[in-house]
Structure prediction request, 421 residues.
Amino acid sequence: MRDPRRLQTSSGSNVQVVEGSPPGDEAAAKDLSKVVSQLPKPRPARRNRILLGWFLLCVIAPLLATWFYISRIATEQYSASFSYVMQGSGGSAGTTNSDGTVGTSPSTAGASMAEMMVANFMVADYLSSPQAIADIEQKHDIRAMFSDNRFDRLARLPQDASKEQLARYWQGQISTNFDMMTGLTTVTIRAFSPEDAQALAAEMVVLSENLINELNLRPLADSVEFLEGQVAASVTRLEAARDAVQAFRSKYLSIDPAAEASMTDMLVGKLTDQYVSVTTQIAVLSAQLTQDAPSVTQLERQAAAIADEIVKARQRVAQSSAELSNISSPASYAAQLQEFQNLQLELTIATSNYQSTEAALNAAKQRLSQQHFYVLTYVQPTPPQTSNYPNMFRAMVIVLAVALCFWIVSTLVALSLRDHL
Prediction:
């Protein structure tokens, strides 16, 4: 019977070899012992202890720290919220046409919804801006509300915080939620006391309404200012046209050359009819009487007088004398009439321009007295009774999720590097 022998490898493992076995078996056993000696020693217990310690450090320790901070250190915060909706006045805005008249733009009805949505975003963005902080600080001391030493260091505002740090802190304390489908907006503000939260929310309601009023008034005020300038210019033009007409009348001693020319034409027509009638009578009497008959002579003198009046009237229409015109050189009635018609046309245009710009100004002032958008606060801010921040459950879930992800990723990376080294 063969005696078994044990060969000890350099790693301390034993390989059993039967005595009397062929030399090839002993060589194979030696080779096997060399291979076994090159293998790393299994250390499962140590690896498990390392993984457990890493798990406790990455997962359990953050959870305990979070629980201790929220339950023992963190200062309770209270939130107050309000909800509002932007509503239009229902009327279409007037526009000023190129001729100065007031009309209605066909695109205003379709643009009202887009304008209200833009106004909603503007209000939401304004409430979280440094401008809102400056407006609120006119009535409330925001730094005193959030930087008291009684609050925990991680949640409070540093007492020497700059404006930029205050703006970032404020943006963390306020949240806005705008529903695109319904157009409803909810604004929530957190503070360390219920009274401060309610006071800040109420002040933000007032600021939102003031912002919308300013958005309504600013473009309309600019329009009123522009139209007031246009009205002033049209008044100046109208006064200049009236002065020119008055100067013409004083210069030519004529109220209305066109009317006077028309009256002169009528007079010439009547005189012509009389002249024709008198000459007809002269012809009839000349056939019956002698040429030097008194009646014929009288009619001839009457006809001569009528003809002279016709000539004078026609001369007044074509060209008046210097005495009638009150100028040093004679001027034609046609030139006077043309000049007067130009002045009258300018006066008509100036009057129409003044009336249209005055109507546009009155319409703009009427729109200025109205609001196109309203902030309807259907949920008013009220003082909260219970603290809802920090939220223990949500904080623990977030910390657990982040810690587990970090632990899993770091463990896989460590094991992968160990296998490749």
About this structure: The two ends are 47 Å apart (CA to CA). Confidence is low (pLDDT under 50) at residues 1-13, 91-111, 320-331. The first strand starts at residue 4 and ends at 8. The CA atoms of residues 285 and 296 lie 6 Å apart.
